[in-house]
Structures are given as C-alpha cells and as structure tokens.
Amino acid sequence: MSLYAVALRAIQAPTLAAAPVLTAAGKPADETATFLRANPGFLGRRLPLADARALAEAAAAAGFPVIIAAEAGLPVFPPAVFPEKIEIADDGFYASAAGSRLFIPYASVTVIAAAVYEGPVEPATLSALKAGLFSRLYALAGRPLPPSPAPESETRLLADIIGGPGPLRLRLRPEDLDFSPLGKELSPSSEANFRKLLGEVAARSFTAAGSACLAALLAGRPLGPLRYGGAEACDEALTRLLLAAAA
Questions:
Q1: Which of 21, 58, 120, 228 sees the fewest Cβ atoms within 10 Å?
Q2: What are phi and psi of 117, to 5 degrees?
Q3: CA-CA distances (angstroms) from residue 237 to 29, 75, 93, 171, 189?
Q4: Per-residue pLDDT tens for 223-240?
C-alpha cells in the first residue's frame, strides 16, 4: 500500500506553526511538539491516502495550505560536499572541500537552508578514554557498569546550499569552516561569522528558496523557537523545503 506525507506549502513555515492543527485532531501537545521538531514542515508522515486527505483538509481549514506527496516520491538530495572554506566572488562563490575548489554560480543556487538543532555534546578525548578504561575495568571485575548520566546536549547550527554543477548539496557547519576570507569583517563569534557568510551568499542568490531559520539567523532573531529535534530532523526539513519549492 502506498503511503503519503502531508507537508506545509509555506516555504518559511516556523517549526511549530501548525501545532494547533495536530492538537485539534487530538494529539497531545507534548507529542505534537516532538513530532514537529523531528519532522519540520510536515504535519503527517507515512499515512494512508484517506488519512492524508483528512489531515490536509483540517490544515487548510485552519489556514495552512499543504501538499500531499507519496513518500516514495519525496525529493532526493544531491551528492553532499562538506566545505572547509567559502570565498565570495562576483558571479558565484568558491567552496574548498577535500582538496578541491568548486565554483558555484549564484544563479544556480536553488535552496539555502539554515537549521538549529539539539545535538549531544561531543566528549573531550580524555573523557572518552576514561569511559573506555572504566568499561574494561568493570568487565574484568565481572561487575556491571554503574548507571551513566544522561548525555548533555547543546544547540548547533548548520546550513545546506544546493546549487552548482550536478547540482551539489553543500553542508556547512560553523565549527568546520575557515572564516578567514571575511577579512576585516571577521568576528570572534563563529555564529556571527556564519551569519555574515550566509548573508553574503543569500543576498546574491536571488531565486533561492530560504528556510525560516535562515531568515531568523540573518535578521538576528532568536533561534530557539525554530529548534529541531536532532541532526536527522535537518534532513527532514530540507526534504520538505525542496518539496515546497518545487510545488
């Protein structure tokens, strides 16, 4: 049986914008928020067609036009590239990745999506070594490990730019980027540098669709309300953005 997704048509829909539609349908508020942060831009996933149509009608009645799309027909990402440096030029920008320097014309950019999400704090190397050592010691003693505390999380930023030959998907993370091309505008804040860099690209990519998080980041607005549930949710949001941009 074919299954369907129900996606918001609005390109820059905030993460929890359509929460009232799901709560009115009887979904608890906490479950609604969890679902929308894990599936940004979607009101339903893997639904039978009749259920998808009923949800779409409820959303439209509440003022949220939607798209019904077969799960098997959702957009597929282009090949991913992870740049270490972006250099702005007149007609496009250069992305340096894995020893290659790619030129991406601004006219070829179709999507610029920023995302903010919750991710686990990466342990320092020494902490990781200690954890492994304790595991081996307890195993040798024939004793179970004591309960581990819940992993800490932190808010992270990333962005996807789709364009160039192919096209390509450039995935940018502030912690992985060399911002030295910003020159005199370089800031001690990686978030400020990330904002400046994305702003330079977005200002020249006139036909690109942008995410709600991108608009908030460039405007300096709080990003907390737009937070996604994890790194996987960033891909879900990008899928929905590609779907909405093509509709």
A1: 120
A2: -150, 165
A3: 20, 11, 24, 14, 26
A4: 999 999 999 999 999 999
Within the chain, what is the greatest distance between any pair of CA atoms? Answer: 65
Tokens of 32: 């609604």
Encoded tokens for 95:
């992305």
Q: Taking the mean position of all CA atoms in its chain, how far away is CA 76?
A: 15
Q: Which residue carries 């679902």 as its tokens?
A: 35
pLDDT digits (tens, 9 = 90+) for 94-140: 999 989 999 999 999 999 999 999 876 655 454 544 555 556 555 65
**Ordered domains of the chain (ranges, CATH):** 4-73 (3.30.1390), 80-121+153-246 (no CATH)
Check if the beta carbon of residue 4 is closer than 8 Å to that of residue 68. yes
CA distance 198 to 219: 12
Sign for the CA dihedral angle at 74, 9, 92, 116 comes to negative
Sequence-separated (6 or more) residues with CB below 8 Å from residue 48: 1, 3, 4
Query: 179 near 186, Cβ under 8 Å?
Result: yes
Within 10 angstroms of residue 21's Cβ, the number of other Cβ atoms is 24
